[in-house]
Design goal:
The structure holds three protein chains of three kinds. Chain A is 73% helix and 0% strand. By secondary structure, chain A is mainly α. In chain A, helix 4 (68-104) runs antiparallel to helix 5 (106-121), helix 4 (68-104) packs parallel to helix 7 (139-149) and helix 11 packs antiparallel against helix 12 (245-273). The relative contact order of chain A is 0.16. Chain C is built from twelve helices and two strands; from the N terminus they run ααααββαααααααα. Chain C has helices spanning 2-29, 34-39, 46-55, 62-74, 88-123, 128-142, 145-159, 179-217, 220-227, 232-269, 275-284, 288-316; strands at 80-81, 86-87. Classes of the chains: A mainly alpha, B alpha/beta, C mainly alpha. At the A-C interface, helix 5, helix 6, helix 10, helix 11 and helix 12 of A face helix 1, helix 6, helix 7, helix 10 and helix 11 of C.
Chain lengths: 278, 329, 324
């Protein structure tokens, strides 16, 4: 493990990714101490609308005179929370399905993987539109569930591929020869080996979910207002694009920085955990 | 007679992870018209890099040929030729075939296209003419049914047939020199013999000169007029083939010869050369062979011998030339 | 070849069938009733709703509904759009060309620009230009596509006034334009949305292309090509690029879902009248059949796109063709 850590820290890009993600997490956690404004409070509808960035409002205010700095900070909380928990859900399901398909093989494998193929054929945003059309106003928890339930497909494929390649190796045959049942096999021998690619996929997945969630919130079907989310702030900003261009610009930068951070972190982890891919 | 190709103190280095590998370190030899020169040595001794250096194919950010090297072809130094002029030599005057026919042919182009494009790069031939010539060449190298094989992709041919295609491609513009880098190493034993016989036949018929690179002395025995043995990025012995086989002077050549299985003497087992091929990033001091040499004495460890003259035809990079009494039987 | 096509077509049909089944399952797992939901805003009497349910067969057992749904689907019947008051297929059909136009233009940007950038990077690996382009592609790849669209709109539409900020044509003047004027009007309206969608794809393509080229350049046959006396240009363009095309074609197949997902967002940003924006509007208007219908059509497009990529792969890689 220390060897992997050393390999990880040896990469400049990985260190940058870790720093970006670290700073974001700290800012999200420390939001109440970094700003004194309530992200949903309308401060002064007469004189405080669409103010440009200033000392009092580093990112300016929006059309409802809410402080954008606090909205972006609290938006980070929402976006990161949704992304992290959705990825946990999706990785859990994906690992379970992948293990099942890979270990069972035969009909079970074919059926599961063909279904995954089919689901992957539906462009993700369309799939989410269908689900969100049917379940309305799901709230943050519901959104986590929906994003998690629609994002495990890739993870299941990764795990299945890893299981198949591990199955072909000698130590699995040895374990089977010793008479271990298949559940025990899965948990004792496969999980540790499957962990590395799953951790990498999860890290990269967080960035992707941040993008997807922002897209849904932008379309007005993600995080319900007035809860601040980066995507919905951009949507608000689009309506004021000419009058207050910073409104749409700043949250987008925040999203891009987040995704870059998790990408670099994920790539760094891959190189550190699996030297074969170098 | 003037040499066709004359290589003088060729040095080629590679830079990897901060350390410099002097893969070829001061190689000089001549190649005369119509002659076959065998370049022999274990892998890692620099023979392939020497061959690649002749056509300046040592590429990439890591490898480069050191400034004062000279590679003179018919009076012009190839190392100082502008790229455009160099391309006129490559493939047309000096052609090359490689060790792995499977990876040396482009998988997405037909063999006909690959032969024809060489012709079209160097002659004024039109598309149709080049194709006709490609078919003739395939016939020349003994590929059955060349009319239809010309439209095959490399993967549709066997390894031996692929190497024949490589030979056809190399011969397409009647080169004066053919450099064959381990042309049979990747092939089955029976196919090896066929390819070698083909090379011998074509060389006789076309009268070109050839540099045959191999790690196997058995292969050059029947083909080469002269042999240069390489070790540690240098030529350690040079002599006409029969002299080299009968009276090897350098201990390394001796060791190589002992490693060749022969039918005319009852060998109990092959004599492997003890020790390891040294690394190009860290050549031994003095004579580069001294750590593995059975005759070694103090002088060998300290000073590197030049290529010393044993007879007008035979040269050996060994102090034994000056102190033959030290040879231990 | 015919056999291969037949097998692949059956597979494609099977996937569309599975997609349809999945949609049906989702539809019936969901709480609420599509008819009630789509009429609740218009204060309809209970008898009318019951009549509607009977009309659409929603009072029948679920397996009957499923079979009926599949039968309708096989005839191209995606259901009825309550908002448009006509069949979903007819309503979507008008929007498909716009989405295809946007997607095709985006594909051109994506592969044209992406392969160019990747090839340039591979030509001078680890140089300053390579590093700069790597950072740029990572940044673009990490941007939300709708936000990138807004930024381009802000600069080139609102700021510089070079391009219109929305719609597929000029609402007022278009009917009065000459043929050439109409083509020009469509082109300027297409530019920003297609560029946005294409740029994100181009960033992905460039990263693939760079890796693929660097991989190919190290191969033996590139050395052979040089040894034959071919010019660097021929070596790079004919031998290296041609082989680097193989992973790019694979990417082409993987691209369609991403492209269509991006189209949903981009169409909403630029008020582009395609099927993605139609689906989002339908969702806000609770026109469920339209949402599910467009999803099935999008899936069918993806399946067709994959089929196309497979065929293309067989064109560029002779090793995958059957040998005679």
């Amino acid at each position: 493990m220390t060897e992997a850590l050393r390999r990880f820290l040896a990469q400049r890009r990985a260190r940058l990714g870790l720093a970006l993600v670290g700073v974001l997490c700290v800012m999200a956690l420390a939001a109440p101490w970094l700003t004194s404004h309530d992200p949903t409070a309308q401060l002064d509808l007469v004189h405080g609308r669409l103010l440009p960035p200033s000392a009092a409002h580093p990112f300016g205010t929006d059309d409802l005179s809410r402080d954008l700095f606090s909205r972006v900070l609290y938006g980070a909380r929402i976006s990161l929370t949704i992304a992290v928990f959705s990825v946990l859900v999706s990785v859990g399901i994906g690992t379970a399905v992948g293990l099942m398909a890979g270990l069972a093989g035969g009909v079970v494998d074919t059926l599961l993987m063909r279904s995954v193929d089919a689901a992957l054929a539906i462009p993700r945003v369309f799939l989410l539109l269908v689900v969100l059309a049917l379940w309305e106003n799901v709230g943050v928890a519901g959104l986590i569930a929906i994003l998690g339930l629609t994002s495990w497909l890739d993870a299941s494929r990764i795990v299945r591929a890893e299981v198949l390649s591990l199955k072909a190796r000698a130590f699995m045959a040895a374990a089977r020869a010793l008479g271990f049942g298949s559940h025990r096999l899965a948990l004792r021998h496969l999980l540790p080996n499957v962990a590395a690619p799953v951790i990498v996929a999860a890290t990269l997945g967080i960035g992707q979910i941040v993008l997807v969630e922002a897209g849904l919130s932008y379309l007005g079907i993600g995080v319900p207002p007035p809860t601040p989310s980066w995507g919905s702030i951009i949507a608000d900003g689009q309506r004021q694009l000419a009058a207050a261009p910073w409104m749409a610009t700043i949250p987008g930068v925040a999203i891009a920085v987040t995704v870059v951070g998790f990408s670099l972190l994920g790539d760094g982890l891959r190189d550190a955990l699996d030297p074969r891919t170098r | 007679m003037n040499p066709l190709l004359s290589v003088r103190h060729l040095r080629t280095s590679f830079e990897t992870n901060g350390s410099i590998a002097r893969a070829v370190d001061g190689v000089s030899f001549d190649l005369f018209p119509g002659e076959t020169l065998g370049l022999v040595g274990e892998s890692g001794c620099g023979k392939t890099v020497t061959a690649l250096s002749i056509l300046r194919l040592v590429s990439g950010p890591t490898g480069h040929i050191v400034k004062d090297s000279v590679i003179e072809y018919q009076g012009t130094d190839l190392l100082r030729l502008p790229p455009r002029e160099l391309r006129r030599i490559r493939g047309a005057e000096i052609a090359m075939i490689f060790q792995e026919p499977t990876t040396s042919l482009n998988p997405v182009l037909t063999v006909g296209t690959q032969i024809a494009e060489t012709l079209r790069a160097h002659t004024k031939m039109d598309r149709k003419g080049a194709r006709r010539r490609a078919i003739e060449l395939l016939e020349l190298v003994g590929i059955p049914d060349p009319e239809s094989r010309v439209d095959d992709y490399p993967h549709q041919l066997s390894g031996g047939m692929q190497q024949r295609v490589m030979i056809a491609m190399a011969l397409s513009c009647d080169p004066k020199i053919l450099i064959a880098d381990e042309p049979t190493t990747a092939l089955d034993v029976t196919i090896q013999a066929q390819i070698l016989a083909l090379l011998a036949k074509l060389k006789r018929r076309l009268g070109m000169a050839m540099i045959l690179i191999t790690h196997d002395l058995g292969i050059v025995a029947g083909l080469a007029d002269r042999i240069a043995v390489m070790y540690g990025g240098q030529i350690v012995e040079q002599a006409p083939t029969d002299i080299l086989f009968q009276h090897p002077q350098h201990p390394y050549t001796e060791a190589l010869l002992k490693a060749v299985p022969r039918i005319d003497r009852p060998t109990t087992r092959l004599a492997a050369i003890p020790g390891m091929v040294p690394r190009a990033t860290k050549w031994p001091t003095g004579c580069r062979f001294h750590p593995r040499c059975q005759h070694v004495w103090e002088r060998c460890r300290v000073r590197m011998p030049d290529l010393l003259t044993w007879s007008p035809e035979q040269h050996s990079r060994c102090w034994l030339v000056e102190e033959p009494e030290r040879r231990q039987e | 070849m015919v056999r291969y096509l037949a097998v692949r077509s059956v597979q494609a049909a099977a996937i569309v069938f599975l997609v349809a089944t999945l949609t049906f399952v989702l539809l019936h797992l969901a709480p609420g009733d599509p008819v009630i939901a789509s009429t609740e805003s218009t204060l309809v009497r209970r008898e009318v709703i019951e009549q509607q349910r009977r009309n659409f067969g929603l009072d029948r057992p679920i397996h009957v509904q499923y079979l009926r749904y599949l039968r309708n689907l096989s005839r191209g019947d995606l259901g009825y759009s309550f908002r448009e008051r006509r069949s979903v297929w007819h309503a979507v059909r008008e929007r498909i060309p716009n989405t295809l136009l946007l997607a095709t233009a985006a594909l051109l940007v994506m592969f044209g620009l992406g392969m160019l950038i990747g090839a340039v990077q591979a030509a001078v690996p680890r140089s300053r230009a390579d590093d700069a382009l790597s950072i740029l592609t990572l940044a673009v790849y990490s941007m939300p596509v709708f936000w990138l669209g807004l930024m381009l709109m802000l600069v080139f539409g609102l700021g510089l006034g070079w391009f219109p900020v929305g719609g597929a044509v000029d609402q007022v003047l278009y009917p009065h334009m000459s043929l050439l004027g109409k083509v020009g009007d469509r082109a300027v309206h297409l530019f920003l949305p297609a560029l946005t969608l294409g740029l994100v794809g181009a960033a992905v393509t460039a990263r693939y292309q760079r890796a693929a080229m660097l991989d190919v350049i190290r191969q033996d046959f590139v050395r052979t090509a040089r040894a034959k006396g071919l010019s660097e240009r021929t070596v790079f363009l004919k031998h290296a690029l041609r082989n680097a095309l193989l992973p790019i074609v694979t990417l082409f197949g993987l691209t369609f879902p991403l492209l269509l997902s991006g189209a949903v967002l981009i169409e909403s940003v630029f008020a582009w009248p395609g099927m993605g924006k139609f689906a989002v509007d339908a969702l806000h208007g609770r026109d469920y059949n339209v949402v599910t219908g467009t999803a099935i059509i999008a899936a069918a497009m993806v399946v067709l796109g994959n089929l196309l990529a497979d065929l293309l792969y067989r064109v560029v890689d002779p090793r995958t063709r059957e040998s005679s």
